[in-house]
């Protein structure tokens, strides 16, 4: 009987020992994962264009933080003091250009000594329209620059970044082909945009003419005279649709639509984005395909 009790006690102690070992192993792995998360490189970006590109090209190997909140107006945005503090502690800061984002320029001047900076506009040809990402031929160049930027910060993932870049380039190539084919034989060639000048770079390569209600920012003046002239042009040319931005108030577009009996269709400038699209991590290519769908419908382009 005593031997039996001794064996039971020994077995019980063995189980306790095994349990304690499992607890220690789990604790060690948790600590290791915690350290790995803390060691993950952090990149801060100005707005959604660099945000979605970094996410896609990095494959979640870095932490990405976007300064511009979803739905905010990008041209006149004012960052908080906390943004500057965070920027001094980050590994990298990516923004579009000094002209488009003057507030980002101020942040870049005060970034940390070890914070790498990337100004995307420096790598492509400048045009009167500063929305450089709307010209599809610019996108492989911008993606290459971001990829090299990522490799400098996290060289251990260089192979992954190259693979992601090649996939992105393939997506852009297909997108270019679809734009060129779909917009070649449209019934109408004029795009009337009740918003700011954000789509000239997109439309010019395909022989489309853009008319906007304001300039390159959302703060342009919408004069009654200009609105009346725009309405007359729509009627005279027999257009069937006008376009407006997804994040801009539709009041003016509704006024024009009532006067001209046309359809209102959305365009996506991508520099600012809805909260829902942000939460769904909608990509650059997906948003541009939405633009293509709207243009094909509004300009009455034949299907292929």
List the helices and strands and how they pair.
Blueprint: H1 2-39, E1 42-45, H2 48-58, E2 63-66, H3 81-87, E3 92-95, H4 102-109, E4 116-119, H5 139-153, H6 158-182, E5 190-193, H7 200-203, E6 209-212, H8 224-237, E7 241-245, H9 251-260, E8 263-267, H10 275-279, H11 284-298
Parallel strand pairs: 1-2, 1-3, 3-4, 5-6, 7-8
Helix pairs in contact: 2-5, 5-6, 6-11
Give the tags:
304 residues, alpha/beta, Rossmann fold, 4-stranded parallel beta sheet, two-stranded parallel sheet, 11 helices, 50% helix, globular, disordered N terminus
CATH fold name of the largest domain, please? Answer: Rossmann fold
Q: Could you state the CATH homologous superfamily of the largest domain?
A: Nitrogenase molybdenum iron protein domain
> Rg, please?
26 Å
How many domains, as an integer? 2
Give helix and strand order, one letter per element, not per position.
Answer: HEHEHEHEHHEHEHEHEHH
Total strands: the figure is 8
Structural class: alpha/beta
Strand order of the largest sheet: 2-1-3-4
Low-confidence stretches: 1-8, 21-38, 215-221
> What is the molecular shape?
globular
For this entry, what is the oligomeric state of its chains? single chain
